[in-house]
Amino acid sequence: MPIKNKKRNVKQKIKAKLHPRNKHQGRYNLQELAISNPDLKPFIFINEYEIETLDFADPEAVKALNKALLLHFYNVKNWGIPQGYLVPPIPGRADYIHNISDLLATSNKGIIPKGKQIKCFDVGVGANCVYPLIGNSEYGWNFVGVDIDQTAIDSANKIVAANPQLDGKIKFRHQINNKNIFNGVMELTERFHVTICNPPFYSSMHEAQAKAIKKVSNLGKEKVEEVTANFGGQSKEVYCYGGEGKFVNTMIEQSKTYANCCLWFTTLISNVAHLDAAYKQLDYAEAFDIKILPMGQGNKVSRILAWTFQNKEKQEAWMSTLPQQEKPEIIKEEI
């Protein structure tokens, strides 16, 4: 039977630090990264504390940093995104992937599964394609990335095409209905080990702009009236009707239809206030188990909401067909 009112057992924990396997601990070695991407060098400067840094409110500087990070740590060449698209924080994206690896280990007798047999479904893959790039590099997983924006899919395809090691490992599908999450892009005969998602957070362009202006100001800029589009991302990337809460509830509702197609459904939850409605929706959908995976980067605290419709026996059956890992990594801490 599904576990009712699971929220009583998954209280949010504050973990304002990166996952221990995250390669982006501490300060960036910007000079070393500039060797990987010389375009980064013009953006490096010495601040008032005599520390080398970047202007993180400048999207071009962050894009140059991302290109360097992806090449230096993940062997991704020629990364880029169209003008005006979301510039993602690489450490946070890597943290999601590492937390998901731990989640899959809970269904695999504590062993982190690696290799192409692990199939992941990325909802809203974006023009940057960062989750699949990191997931394949770190764990060898295969991905299907879905997006409602054809330009984003074209950009992601271009990144994969520029990296022969990714051939056949990351594929894309176009979601043509903005009211659907899984409907229309996932087949009932398919099997995925996990879905991942960084949902649109805001409910309107006005709200997104207000938050982006505040973010720029917090980064030490003078007061501004508006921000450039590529700092906040495309409209489809940052806001949707009802915002994050509505998006996640729709995802949970549709996941019930695909209960036997996926082992774990997951999504980032930026606003903790959205959890109560998500728990109620998961109870209604009769999810068997619910987990909260806390994440933190600096002063920012976030979390991943994960749920499954499979009991423990079925979870182990899902993973039983995987090849035995030569050097299995055991997750000792229960998620």
Task: Provide the descriptors you would attach to this structure in a database record.
seven-stranded mixed sheet, 11 helices, Rossmann fold, alpha/beta, 335 residues, rRNA processing, rRNA_lsu_MeTfrase_F, EC 2.1.1.181
Alpha-beta content class: alpha/beta
Q: Sheet with the most strands?
A: 7 strands, mixed
- Number of structural domains: 1
Head-to-tail CA distance between termini: 21 Å
The coarse silhouette is globular
Q: Say which CATH homologous superfamily is assigned.
A: Vaccinia Virus protein VP39
Q: Helical stretch count?
A: 11
Tell me the radius of gyration.
20 Å
Q: Remind me, CATH topology?
A: Rossmann fold
| Main sheet: strand order | 5-4-3-6-7-9-8
| Secondary-structure element series | HEEHHEHEHEEHHHHEHEEH
* Number of β-strand runs: 9
Helix content: 25-40%
CATH architecture annotation name: 3-Layer(aba) Sandwich
- CATH class descriptor name: Alpha Beta
Mean of the pLDDT scores?
A: 86
The percentage of residues in β strands lies in 15-25%
